[in-house]
Design brief:
Distance between the termini: 20 Å
CATH architecture: 3-Layer(aba) Sandwich
Bound molecules: adenosine-5'-triphosphate, magnesium ion
CATH superfamily: P-loop containing nucleotide triphosphate hydrolases
Number of helices: 11
Shape: globular
Radius of gyration: 17 Å
Number of strands: 10
Oligomer: single chain
């Protein structure tokens, strides 16, 4: 796994010298409270990069700032060579950054399939392309197809998480932002969700994965960033972070 991670990382960097996402000196505040400070981060095309950190480290704020939901108070975000700092969220989605938010946030009264269709709102494509994407998502998560006509609110927590990821995929992301997809799930479902995240990455989707489950995230990622009190404390290959003494103590339980 370690050697594979390193070779995946160098392959991505060699084949694609320009990052898909380049974050420089990014800051964001809630009123007077600074939640993230001076963040530098790159994601190369095809990479799976994880951000790990404790409660309140600023992980969600960082993703919100990337997707335009939260204002940047300093620094810049460049995506596919264009400056997208503080662009409206719908414009950022239309450029191909799709966000599966923390806490799932599915539309409970709507059916599973209608939730997926909502994820395609930014796409001006024919019905056949959208149906093909829905079929792809049902292939990844067969239980969603079984429950396609049921209200999303009747799904289990794990199934709602699958639906939230599926809805983000309906935007045909060039970059998929995932915020704590394993939160509140049983160990069995955690491995199922992480298997699918890895599969999506193998299919070519570039992924930025925020997780408190540092071990599971680092086991599937190419590289990782450790966020502490709103700042990047460490950045290395996932294999190196899994071996790092301070990371093991603080985030891996030994
Ligand atoms: N709406 C808000 N208003 C004021 N402060 C906020 C708000 N949301 C977050 N914060 C503060 O910003 C900091 C970063 O929070 P954030 O939610 O980004 O962390 P996180 O790493 O995602 O945490 P968690 O692992 O609990 O999801 C924390 O100190 C938090 O208290
Ligand atoms: Mg969070």
């Amino acid at each position: 796994m370690g050697a594979e991670s390193l070779s995946r990382e160098s392959a991505a960097a060699v084949e694609n010298p320009a990052p898909a996402l380049a974050v420089r000196g990014l800051c964001s505040h809630y009123g007077p409270v600074q939640a993230i400070a001076d963040i530098d981060l790159d994601v190369y095309p095809g990479e799976l990069v994880t951000i790990v950190g404790a409660n309140g480290a600023g992980k969600t704020t960082l993703l919100h700032t990337l997707s335009g939901v939260q204002a940047a108070s300093g620094g810049s975000v460049t995506f596919d060579g264009s400056d997208i700092t503080n662009r409206p969220a719908h414009r950022i989605t239309a450029r191909g950054i799709c966000h599966s938010p923390e806490g799932r946030q599915v539309f409970a009264p709507l059916s599973v399939e209608d939730n997926l269709l909502l994820g395609a709102f930014a796409r001006r494509e024919d019905k056949a392309a959208i149906q093909a994407e829905i079929a792809h998502i049902y292939g990844l998560f067969p239980v969603l197809e079984e429950k396609r006509a049921l209200a999303a609110g009747t799904l289990s927590g794990g199934q709602q998480q699958m639906l939230a990821i599926g809805r983000a995929l309906m935007g045909r992301p060039k970059l998929l932002l995932l915020d704590e997809p394993s939160m509140g799930l049983s160990p069995l479902l955690v491995s199922e969700i992480f298997r699918v995240i890895r599969e999506l990455n193998d299919q070519g989707v570039t992924i930025l994965l925020v997780e408190q489950n540092a071990r599971a995230a680092l086991q599937i990622a190419d590289r990782g960033y450790v966020l502490e009190s709103g700042r990047v404390a460490l950045c290395a290959s996932a294999a190196e972070l899994l071996q790092d003494e301070s990371v093991r103590k603080a985030y891996l339980g030994h």
